[in-house]
Amino acid sequence: MLLRHIGDYPIVSNLGPTTDELWHAGHRDRNFYTYGNMGLCSSIALGMAVSTDEKVVSLDGDGSMLMNLGTISTIGREQPRNLVVVVWDNEQWAQTGHQSSHTAFGTDLEQIAQSCSIPRTATVNNLEDLEAVFCEALEQDGPWFIVAKIEETEYMPVAPIEPEMTLYRFRKTFGA
Ligand SMILES: Cc1ncc(C[n+]2csc(CCOP(=O)(O)OP(=O)(O)O)c2C)c(N)n1
Ligand SMILES: [Mg+2]
Fold first, then answer.
1. The Thiamine pyrophosphate enzyme TPP-binding domain covers which part of the protein (predicted)?
2. Which ligand sits nearest to residue 40's alpha carbon?
């Protein structure tokens, strides 16, 4: 659904299932797939956002975001108007054994974003609301912080990705 709306804007995807699903949903040179670097998806997207005028979309995970909450604070400090963070919040560190994360015990990532002065935030619980807020985020200035509550489903096969090629393909789309 997100790919239907995103046009040519770059996406940074969190390690594991998020990256695998993005690859299966629609491989494109402007997908910056990450593997292994837990907690850095939105940090990388932030770095991109301050380097380009284009919208930059981060598809992060609750567990990864919890491991690097300082990213939210830095987004609030830098106020990149073109950054859109979507956190897939399944309330678990799912891929390493479905351990419940802090969002299952009262931590509200949207409230954290608000308290870090991120001006545009939302929490959505269904696809329709996600689509509406995501389209708004692509149109209007942010930074945006969207928490998408999700349920775990079966994993797709691991995507055949080589980090060096991801970097090479991605950079080329910026003419570097
Ligand atoms: C520094 C570091 N610690 C631990 C791991 C192992 N690890 C990989 S993914 C993951 C859980 C990520 O949770 P979340 O971002 O919520 O994504 P989900 O698995 O729920 O899709 C963990 C603990 C890692 N890759 N790097
Ligand atoms: Mg998770």
1. 31-147
2. 1
Distance of CA 72 to the CA centre of its chain: 12
d(CA 94, CA 137): 27
Structure tokens at 7: 């046009």
Helix, strand, coil in percent for the chain, rounding step 5 = 45, 20, 40
DSSP 59: E
pLDDT per residue rounded down to tens, the chain (176 residues)? 999 999 999 999 999 999 999 999 999 999 999 988 899 999 999 999 999 999 999 999 999 999 999 999 999 999 999 999 999 999 999 999 999 999 999 999 999 999 999 999 999 999 999 999 999 999 999 999 999 999 988 999 999 999 999 999 999 998 75
Pocket of ligand 1 (CB under 6 A): 14-18, 36, 38, 61-64, 90, 92-96, 101
Closest-approaching ligand to the CA atom of 59: 1
List Cα–Cα distances, 119 to 39, 46, 54, 151, in angstroms: 22, 15, 19, 27
Ligand 1, atom 18: closest residue by C-alpha: 94
